[in-house]
Amino acid sequence: MVIKFQRRAVIAVTLVYFLLSDNAFAHDPIFSPGPHVLFKDGVEIHAEFSKEKKAESSEDERAIAVKYGITGDWVIGAELPYQISEEENITESGVGDVVLSSKYRFWREDSLGEQSSVAFITQVKLDSGNERIGSGTTDTMLGFAYGYESLKWYRWASMRYRFNQDSSIPSSQFELERGDRWFVDLAGGYRFQVNDYLEADTVWLLELNGEFAERSGIGDLTFADSGGSRWFVSPGVMWTLRNFAFKAGVQIPVRNNLNGDQTATDYRARIEFEWHL
Amino acid sequence: MKQYMSNLFIVLITLFAIVWNTPVLSAEKTFQIRADGLACPYCAYGIEKKFMNIEGVERVDFDLNNGVVSVSGTEALNLKESQLKKLFNDSGFTYRKIVQVDVK
Question: Is residue B61 part of a domain?
């Protein structure tokens, strides 16, 4: 029973991680958040397709999100994912946990053709998903994102901390203490050509994404095969036309320092579509 | 008489064609507005949408290199400083000034 529980717990933790590992908004990097928000009373429709490959297992996620600009510096959103997980020839799929988000840009400095800003980010993953897919917990993430954008160059930096709620273990008085996580990201972008407003616009991106996870455990016992750190280099592209955006990128692991016997990620890939209304 | 009527008809047709193809029956007013923070076209859409919701506005163009937003509309179009400050702030940018107003 302990072994079976461990596998399910690890799957749940991994799936949940995938949900809350980033906060993709508008004109921001692909695998990390930026400070960009939405214009007041604007509506954003966001569709996302993600894949993570680990040896013989894979996890696919499709998600749709809606965001609303409360002010020119504050946007809120809700995301509904659908996940497909395959491990050791066992496939599980279903609607995942709803994620509510808020981003408030509390500092902004504008000059000719340039904008620098910093935003405070919050996310709450609700315990609303399919029993086999959802984590059974409500998790919260807090963070900050800095961004600089100009007609040619972009740069971003962000830091986030996710508080993972302990989850109950069926038929047991104990609770699984799921290790919290840190995310640290740096990103840069470059626009080779500045086109007119009604012409397509392309920005090439490169990110460095770091993830640090605490060990999970029960009481005083910690799981040997949990926690650790890893770094990814993530090239990507952002293509926009007036009020439509397309983004695509891949995360390539460059350093793994995972505790115990954990399967390292081979790669992650993501494509996003976005409309501003 | 026949010749006279024929000539009159040609003159009337010609005048009608000139008037029909002349776009400026009513004057058009264009505001050139300087704004800061405009670094990408995707981000500028919010500005376009808010201006197009103003009665009298017919067209919005962007010159990102010079940070200029051109707003064209009917002769009766009037944009106030306070209105522009709020519009650009609600869009996530900073209004600086109206550079020029043209009436054609």
Answer: yes
Average pLDDT rounded to a whole number, residues A206-229: 93
CA distance A82 to A90: 17
For the question of an ipTM over 0.90, the answer is no
Cβ within 8 Å of B, A 245-274 = 245
The domain of B69 spans 25-103
Question: pLDDT of A21-73, one tens digit each?
Answer: 445 555 899 999 999 999 999 999 999 999 999 998 999 999 999 999 999 99
Spatial CB neighbours of A102, under 8 Å, sequence gap ≥ 6 = A74, A75, A76, A77, A121, A122, A123
Is B93 in the A-facing interface, judged by CB distances under 8 Å? yes
User: What phi and psi values does residue A5 have, to the nearest 5 degrees?
Assistant: -65, -40
Does residue B17 form part of some domain? no
> Residue A195: CB partners within 8 Å, gap ≥ 6?
A201, B41
**B73 pLDDT higher than 60:** yes
Q: Collect all residues of chain A within an 8 Å Cβ-Cβ radius of residue B46.
A: 38-40, 42, 69, 72, 276
CATH number for B99: 3.30.70.100
Residue range A2-276 in CATH 2.40.160.40 = yes
Q: What is the pLDDT of residues A125-152, one digit of tens each?
A: 999 887 777 778 899 999 999 999 999 9
